[in-house]
Amino acid sequence: MTTTISSREFNRDVSAAKRAAEDGPVVITDHGRRSHVLLTAEEFDRLTGGTEFVGDRLRMPRGEAIDLELPDRTTAELRVPEL
């Protein structure tokens, strides 16, 4: 079940919005127009297929190695555009 609340209501009672998200998406409106949707983490993971985001990697504990594959730099000669 989808619940709709105004941004003012959301700011006034975040806990109620979080409880409502347990039953389904919570649409948050700003001046009568949809602006955000609040989901539980489980529902978000289900919708995104558990995709890992760059931000997830940035929050990794210190000391954990990250294999980062970068493409080789180009050695092509740069051309000056004709004006």
From TrEMBL:
It comes from the Bacteria. Residues 1-23 are annotated as: Disordered. Pfam families: PhdYeFM_antitox. InterPro entries: Antitoxin_Phd/YefM (IPR006442), YefM-like_sf (IPR036165). Coiled coil: none annotated. Residues 9-22 have a biased composition (Basic and acidic residues). Belongs to the phD/YefM antitoxin family. Antitoxin component of a type II toxin-antitoxin (TA) system. This is Antitoxin. It comes from Microbacterium immunditiarum. The lineage of its organism: Bacteria, Bacillati, Actinomycetota, Actinomycetes, Micrococcales.
